[in-house]
Amino acid sequence: MGRWLADGGNVPHARNRYAVCEALGKDESVLWPGAAVKAAIKTGYDREVLAVYPYRSACPTSVWRSLIAGAERELTFAGYTNYFLWQQQPNFRALLRRKAEAGCRVRFLLGDPESETTRRREEVEGVPLTVGTRIRISLAELAQLRDVPGLEARFGDDTSRCRSSSSTSRCWSPRTWPSSSATTAHAAPTAAPGRRHVRPLPQPRRGTVGRQPTGCLAMTMELITLDQRGEMIEALTAAVAERGIGNAAVVSVVGAVRAFTVSTMKDDNPREAVLTTGRFAEVAGNGEILDGVPNLHVTCGVEGGVALSGHLHSAEVGGPYFVNIYLLRLGQEG
To answer: Most CB contacts within 10 A, which of 92, 155, 170, 203?
Structure first.
């Protein structure tokens, strides 16, 4: 008994462990914690549970990417806003298009941005980037896929629970979907008896994601896509001037660039900028527009999983490299 207890790596057979525990009046998990865990949890290549995450944001982005990329028959996204997908998955819209064109059925179930459920969630969260705004960003992205056969999106009335399955690489909701022969985002649903009616998505106005009154400010979410070959900051400055935007909160910057230059402050002299340049990067960030001048802070992901962040001085877009910028225009209510 002394030899077993002195050497933590020497675990006796189960019948001997039970006898020792009974003699000492101790639980097996105290004397041999590793053995107790191993007996309770199945390990190996054929284990049924691969990983457990306490909440959605704890699941690595790479896991979502591998599940989505590996799906062949069906992808169902049943998060209430699905906003994080557009922010965290590079070229997500292009990936969905390829999946649908390859015969994979793609479905989105979104909360209604005008519903009472959404309003209650916004009151609980109390953040500037409201639930309704996040839903409208997803709607704006999906609107650009309206011509893709095999892609369907609808509104639901209640919060949906999203689960992922490693066997089929899809997220699913316990909600029963109404039967419908249509496959586009604007198909008319057929409600079955006893089922909650799920409405098709309306077609949003081009360039405008939605309008959210907050306090004394009227804020309008707008989408600016920078995809023409050239310098990104110059193109954004010209775009906001063309739209008459003087002041705005840049809620989200997401996309990819050919080249970039960011700056940070020196440790011993905060007034001196340290410039860092790079090429071919995934970009995510936010910022502001003050008197028509963009001020963006971004993180640029480059080859090797390296992230470079700071104030964006310049970036080059064009061709397959484009950036979506979501703005909340700020102005006094009339």
So the answer is: 170
Instruction: For 116, list phi and psi in degrees, rounded to 5.
Output: -65, -35
Average model confidence (pLDDT) across the chain? 75
CA 267 to chain centre: 33
Q: Which residues contact 42 (CB under 8 A, 6 or more apart)?
A: 48, 49
Choice among 42-46, 68-72, 219-223, 281-285 with the minimum mean pLDDT? 42-46
C-alpha span between 39 and 116 (Å, rounded): 48
pTM comes to 0.45
Residue 139 neighbours by CB distance under 10 Å:
23
CB 264 within 8 A of CB 310: yes
Choose the most confident range, by mean pLDDT, from 24-33, 251-260, 265-274.
251-260
297 three-state secondary structure: strand
At 91 the pLDDT is: 83
d(C-alpha 125, C-alpha 178), whole Å: 31
194 pLDDT more than 70: no
* CA 273/CA 287 separation, integer angstroms: 18
CA–CA gap between residue 88 and residue 91 (Å, rounded): 9
Tell me the two tokens of residue 282. 């995934």
- CA dist 155 and 132 (Å) reads 12
The domain segmentation of the chain, as residue ranges, is 2-40, 56-172, 208-329
Please state whether beta strands 248-265 and 306-317 pair in parallel, antiparallel, or not at all (unpaired).
antiparallel
CATH number for 208-329: choose from 3.30.70.60, 3.40.50.10860, 3.20.20.70, 3.30.1330.80: 3.30.1330.80
Tokens standing for residue 264: 């940070």
**pLDDT tens digits, 24-42:** 887 766 776 665 445 555 5
